[in-house]
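Q: Here's a chain of 44 amino acids. Please give me its 3D structure as tokens.
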Amino acid sequence: MDYIEKLLEKLKELARKLMDSLLGPEPEPELIPIPVRERSMGRR
């Protein structure tokens, strides 16, 4: 079983490298800014 798991990991790594070379690396997900209302000290 250990041999099969190692083989699958190698295949995944090769597939990832192939996809990167064909399509380019996966873009990093962009953070979406979330507006936050600031509370003023005098108002409640």
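Q: Can you summarize the key feature?
A: The mean pLDDT is 82.
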